[in-house]
Write a structure and sequence with these properties.
By secondary structure, this protein is mostly helical. The chain has 7 helices and 2 strands. The protein has a two-stranded parallel sheet. Helix 3 runs antiparallel to helix 4, helix 4 crosses helix 6 and helix 6 packs across helix 7. It is globular.
Length: about 140
Amino acid sequence: MTQVSLRSFVNSALAKGSITVDDISALQCEILPDGLQSRNDVALLLDLDRRLGSGNAAWAAWLVAAIMDFVVWGERPTGYVEEATGRWLEGVLAGSGDPAPSMPLIAREIRREAHGMAPDLLSCDWADEAVEVSRGVAALAA
């Protein structure tokens, strides 16, 4: 994967104003076959999510899983979210302006999957939001 390919994907999705199932397949199989590789990848995709919204259940599900996998299993120490990583992610999730629509789900999945993390990381009263967002994603998928 090259940063140029991911930027091209983001630019294309923004130009179309949507992300299709075929786009997600290309992203997963061709552009990011080994998953997210850097914090910059996370930031680019969260910006895309923020700009397009999570109206597509397949996109929301893929994004949540990819970011959770990167943060919990790709960052070191594996399986744990250190305070610096958690604070970085909180900042990227909140962004400048509106938070990413998938933010509550990402926070919930990281807290669920990680073997350990500081108690106050990714808590920010997002639990209730995560339940509401997951209900919305489930309704879209139905």
